[in-house]
């Protein structure tokens, strides 16, 4: 185990080579995280954490005796019973790309959900996020006022944002994204606002206005062509929408920024 002071972390995975790899190849000292124990299943881990609270949990999902999801559900119960003002930051590392697992992980407040095999760098980024959340809680004058928006975007919302960034020029709707992510539109809408602070339509509008402004300032495309390129084929609607967003017409914006 490492001896670095700071956040305390544990690893849980039923595969020996993964436990050893995570222990040896992640630069725990540089991250400022102390790896205190490694376990092969959730039952072993929960018994340890009943007596030794930890800050960060890096866990597989499918394991014998107690799954990662069952473990974290029990951990949340323990935190509630003890009336703890902070919670263990959980990162799931799983070989199962089933969004049902991701959805449950989000419900349990996971910081991230990574699919195996993941690069060491990707895991270290997730660990750094978890450590920052721990530091924010420690620094907060009143932890009970800590807001959940402070959490980084979850695995599901990251995927939704990637899809939106790639397809914002299309006639894109929330239910399309929800269908492709195998969740309900109501669930995605609620989670999207919780994670980003914006509604799906507001976020989509933000992506489109940023691109429209970029094209108006740097290209020779006609205004109607720019409207088409950001998902508004109706020139009048595009001009009205742009005026509402920026407080000036597309032509005035181009004159000011070209």
UniProtKB/TrEMBL annotation:
Ranges where the HTH araC/xylS-type domain occurs? 158-256
Q: Which residues carry this modification: 4-aspartylphosphate?
A: 60
Q: Which InterPro entries match?
A: CheY-like_superfamily, Homeodomain-like_sf, HTH_AraC, HTH_AraC-typ_CS, Sig_transdc_resp-reg_receiver
The superkingdom of the source organism is Bacteria
Which keywords appear in this protein's UniProt record, sorted alphabetically?
A: DNA-binding, Phosphoprotein, Transcription, Transcription regulation
- Keyword Membrane part of the UniProt annotation: no
Q: Which residues form the Response regulatory domain?
A: 8-131
SMART domains, A to Z? HTH_ARAC, REC
Q: What is this protein called?
A: Response regulator
Recall the taxonomic lineage recorded for the source organism. Bacteria, Bacillati, Bacillota, Bacilli, Bacillales
């Amino acid at each position: 185990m490492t001896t670095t002071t700071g956040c305390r972390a544990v690893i849980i995975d039923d595969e020996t080579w993964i436990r050893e790899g995570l222990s040896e190849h992640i630069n725990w000292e540089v991250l400022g995280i102390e790896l205190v124990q490694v376990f092969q299943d959730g039952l072993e881990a929960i018994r340890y954490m009943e007596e030794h609270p930890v800050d960060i949990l890096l866990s597989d999902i499918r394991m014998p005796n107690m799954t990662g999801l069952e473990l974290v559900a029990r951990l949340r119960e323990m935190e509630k019973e003890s009336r703890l003002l902070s919670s263990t930051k959980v990162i799931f590392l799983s070989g199962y790309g089933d969004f049902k697992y991701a959805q449950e992980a989000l419900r349990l407040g996971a910081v991230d959900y990574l699919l195996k095999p993941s690069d060491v760098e990707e895991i270290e980024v997730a660990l750094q996020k978890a450590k920052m959340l721990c530091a924010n809680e420690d620094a907060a004058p009143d932890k009970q006022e800590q807001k959940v928006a402070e959490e980084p975007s979850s695995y599901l919302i990251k995927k939704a944002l990637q899809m939106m960034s790639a397809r914002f020029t299309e006639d894109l709707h929330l239910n399309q994204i929800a269908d492709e992510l195998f969740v309900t539109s109501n669930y995605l809408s609620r989670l999207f606002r919780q994670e980003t602070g914006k509604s799906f339509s507001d976020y989509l509008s933000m992506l489109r206005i940023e691109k429209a402004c970029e094209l108006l300032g740097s290209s020779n495309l006609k205004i109607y062509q720019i409207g088409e390129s950001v998902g508004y084929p109706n020139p009048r609607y595009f001009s009205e929408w742009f005026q509402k967003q920026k407080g000036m017409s597309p032509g005035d914006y181009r004159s000011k920024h070209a």
